[in-house]
Design a protein that fits this description.
Nitroreductase; Nitroreductase-like; binds flavin mononucleotide; four-stranded antiparallel beta sheet; NADH Oxidase
Amino acid sequence: MTTQKEIIKIRKPQPDYPVMKAINDRFSPRYFSDEKVKSSDINLIFEAARFAPSGWNFQPWYFYWAKKGDASYGKIISCLAKYNRFAKTAPVLIVACFIKKFKGKKTYYRHDLGAAVMSLVLQAQHLGYYCRQMGDFNKNKLVKLFNIDINHFPFVVIALGKLGDYKNIDNKLLKRELDPRPRKKDFVKKLD
Ligand SMILES: Cc1cc2nc3c(=O)[nH]c(=O)nc-3n(C[C@H](O)[C@H](O)[C@H](O)COP(=O)(O)O)c2cc1C
């Protein structure tokens, strides 16, 4: 039987330099615990997104979220690609949207949403939660189901929660979880 400890050992980053704890602990699991996300923590997590930098300070992002048990939760799950439906163990699902224009000006929407999402993810990690972002879902279906504002473009769904205990995980999913996510090292060049 695989334990949570073993999963953490395999999936946790192994940085060459002592990066900050939230980065050092973060990975994207596919298996979450039933434990609820406290509402005070939800507030903190979105607050971190709010203070992300953005081009011209346009803040071209918008988040919709639902917790397990809400009618909307199942609807979000139904929009995910089948292989992403592992997300059904997560106590919270967040739909992160970008906004292409602000006061008639083009925003740096993908970049800025990425910054806001990463702030959110790291704040969550700092509080002991894990996130997995999923870009593969039926965006048109989601927009229709929730009658989403025409200016909000769903880009990733984020599964959020505490890490599962992995004792009852099915074998197929476990196999995917045991796959380490190595990082390339050749990505920085000092210019003369
Ligand atoms: C924009 C974006 C889209 C992603 N889409 C998916 C997805 O559809 N399904 C999935 O299982 N993981 C998805 N991921 C998670 C990545 O596969 C994961 O972050 C990557 O393999 C690195 O692993 P780590 O986050 O555990 O370090 C996505 C991540 C990002 C940032």
